Amino acid sequence: MQVLVVGATGGTGRQVVEQALQSGHFVTAFVRDPAKLSIQHPKLTVLTGDVLKSETLLPAVRRQDVVICSLGSRPGQTDQAVAEGTRNLIAAMHQAGVQQLFVVSSLGVGTSYEEASLPSKLIIKTLLSGVIADKEKQEQAVRESGLDWTIVRPTSLTNGPVTGHYRIGEHLPFSRFDFPRISRADVAAFLLNQLDKDTYRQKAVTITGA
C-alpha cells in the first residue's frame, strides 16, 4: 500500500513508519523538520510541510491508499492545533479522493474517560486537560468527515517493543486503581494490521497492553 504518516517524527508515528517499511509498504512521512527523521529506506519519501498550512498537505495526500494521523501537541502551539491540523488533513483527503483515515487519539477522550481508572482520570483532568480538549475537537472533526475512519485511543504510552499482546475495544473498563500502559510499537503494529480490514471502521476503540 501507499501509506501517508502525518506526525511521523513523534514516538508513535516513527514506529508506524519503521514497521510499515518493514512490512513492504511504500511510506510517505509528512514532517515539519526532516532532520528529526533519521530513517532512510528506498520505499520512504519524506515531505516537509505543516498541517496548519493547508496548502502543504495536498501534495502529500495525493495518490495515497491510506492516511495514518499521529499528531501530538507541541510547545507554543495554539490550544486547538491538533484539531485544526486534522481538519486541514481531512479537507486535503477529500480534495485528493483518499478515503481511509486512521487517527491516534488518547484514553480520556469521549466515552473512554468514564471507563478509565482513577489515576488515569486524575492525570487526564490535570496535566492533560488541554491535550484532551484538543483531541475531543479532533475526534469530532473525524466523525463528521464522511471518510472511512478509525480512531485509536491508547492508554499511557511507553517505548517498549512490539509484544502483540493487547486488549482493544469500544468499551474497555479498567480496575479502579490500574495505571494501564501500552508500547508505541504495539499501537503502530495494531494500526498497520488494520489497513486491509474493516473490523473497526467508523469506530473509536481503546487499546492497552494485555
Notes on the structure:
The protein is of the alpha/beta class and 210 residues long. It has a single domain (2-209), classed as NAD(P)-binding Rossmann-like Domain (Rossmann fold), CATH 3.40.50.720. 33% of the residues lie in helices and 23% in strands. It is built from seven helices and ten strands. The protein has helices at 11-22, 58-61, 81-96, 112-115, 118-125, 129-143, 184-193, and strands spanning 2-6, 26-31, 44-48, 66-69, 100-104, 148-154, 156-158, 166-169, 181-183, 203-209. An eight-stranded mixed β-sheet has the order 3-2-1-4-5-6-10-8, with helices on both faces. Strands 7-9 form a two-stranded parallel sheet. β1, α1 (11-22) and β2 form a beta-alpha-beta unit. α1 crosses α7 (184-193) and α3 runs parallel beside α6. The longest helix has 16 residues, at 81-96. The chain is globular and about 45 Å long. It starts with a strand and ends with a strand.
SSE run: EHEEHEHEHHHEEEEHE
CATH architecture: 3-Layer(aba) Sandwich
Structural class: alpha/beta
Percent strand equals 15-25%
Q: The CATH topology, please? A: Rossmann fold
Distance N to C terminus = 29 Å
Assembly of the depicted chains: single chain
What strand order characterises the main sheet? 3-2-1-4-5-6-10-8
Count of DSSP E strands?
A: 10
Q: Can you identify the CATH class?
A: Alpha Beta
**What is the total domain count?**
1
Spatial extent as radius of gyration: 16 Å
List strands and helices in order, with pairings.
Blueprint: E1 2-6, H1 11-22, E2 26-31, E3 44-48, H2 58-61, E4 66-69, H3 81-96, E5 100-104, H4 112-115, H5 118-125, H6 129-143, E6 148-154, E7 156-158, E8 166-169, E9 181-183, H7 184-193, E10 203-209
Parallel strand pairs: 1-2, 1-4, 2-3, 4-5, 5-6, 6-10, 7-9
Antiparallel strand pairs: 8-10
Helix pairs in contact: 1-7, 3-6
